[in-house]
Amino acid sequence: MKRSMWNRWSGGLLAAVLGSALLPMAARAAQHDHPAPEKLGSVDFLVSCEAAARSQFNRSVALLHSFAYAESEKAFRQVLALDPTCAMAHWGVAMSYYHQLWEPPLNATDYAKGKSELEQVTPAQRQSKREAGFISALRTLYSNGDKQSLRERMLAYESSMSEVARANPQDTEAQVFYALALLSTAPPTDRTHANQKRAMAILEPLYAANPQHPGIAHYLIHACDNTELASQGVQAARDYSKIAPSAPHALHMPSHIFTRLGMWNDSVVSNQAARHAAQESGDLGEELHAMDYLTYAFLQLGRDDEAAGVIADLRQMSGLSRQQFKVGYAATAIPVRLAVERRKWQEAAAIDPAKNAPPEVCAVAVWARAIGLARLGRTEEASREVAKLTETERQLRGSGSRYWADQVAIQIAEGDAWIARAKGDRASAKKLMASAADLEDSVEKLPLTPGPIVPAREQLGDLLLELKQPDEALKQFEYSLQQSPGRRNALLGAKTAAEMSNNRQKLELYAVELQKLPQR
What we know:
Blueprint lengths: L2 H5 L5 H8 L4 H7 L19 H15 L3 H14 L4 H9 L12 H12 L9 H13 L8 H18 L4 H13 L9 H16 L4 H10 L10 H10 L4 H5 L1 H7 L3 H18 L2 H17 L3 H13 L8 H17 L3 H5 L9 H17 L3 H20 L3 H21 L3 H16 L14 H11 L3 H14 L4 H13 L3 H12 L5
Helix pairs in contact: 4-5, 5-6, 6-7, 6-8, 8-9, 9-10, 10-11, 10-12, 11-12, 12-13, 13-15, 15-16, 16-17, 17-18, 17-19, 18-19, 19-21, 21-22, 21-23, 22-23, 23-24, 24-25, 25-26, 25-27, 26-27, 27-28
């Protein structure tokens, strides 16, 4: 990734453009040779490196805090070129392989590379007791890979970072990296969000003292990326894109909060900027991630043609490494969202899973086929797709991937519910969809997705409407809207249920809510 590409998205561009209009032509031509300064936020990480390398070290950490992992690795290697005795530069390179909130956080290849990097730290290299603590903590992640699971090593790293933070209470970076470790180990089944709240307790006091620190704002957004805490993340969401506008991820991250709160126009602006910046910097994964969130927001706003335009662009993209989760998930989910949200069952039934994508990614496409076929009344074909999902669940549970196995179990119950509905088995359909909704309610989504294609409880509301049970349907839609505010189809379902049950108060309420969204 070229640094000049990053620079195009720094702050102050408008002022530079306006100012250049007042300069002579020659001066303007010369000015174009010097892009606007890079803006990644402000980091002051005290290290024992040579003075000439310290500024580059801080830039490397700023990139790390905005999950610009490839650029961060390059930057830390430049630190080593400036000062081969800088032990913390090896720490930085190894940290660039540990993608704490992504899927997977650390693969086998990056584990080997990080382990090798840390082995290059020698007693002869300068490091303070505090720096040795950072390096030692990271070694717990890059050790015992043959004896401990990744989850166990992530927890060991978190515990070690807690000691670093405790020993250095006034050190901003020790506190921030510990907060990130807490977020990385937060169990998706913990609906009390204990780790997220512990991280917020660390980060919020630091925010006032370090308003330009990219990691603090970034990790506050992640801590608040859930229904309970989302409203507390709005300020960080507004700030982060201004703190580090040279990082595409910083332009995208605010939409995690906007999506949680149904702020669809804000999400569109955020992801359009992020997508453009990612294109400029050549970050395909970040571009697709933004495109997925952008499609989701377009559909809620009824901007279906623009959502379809995203898919048209997707089909023109070549060389997609779908085996990489971030790329594979977005590339799979985007067309599924368009088909299922718009209830185009023929389109859903025709979606083909990518052959080289991870099983949990392929499952999204298989689920779409199962739902589409069931809704078309082609129950035997739908059942064959559900059988594929059942095999995927077995495979995931066998590999210890409980979270994704549970996600596929939800998809199986949803598929079976719509098959039962198509067969006229009303009781089984209702029971199966309710079980899917209960399981989905028990776990949090991962940061890499804006949410399920359609929440299971929203689907339960749809099913109950078809079963002519509007009072109960209204309750399910309202509960779903508490978890996922502003979803267009849930609002439409709630309005229909209120109308069918002659509930004038709720009918007026949801009519007003729908008026806030553009009409299709």
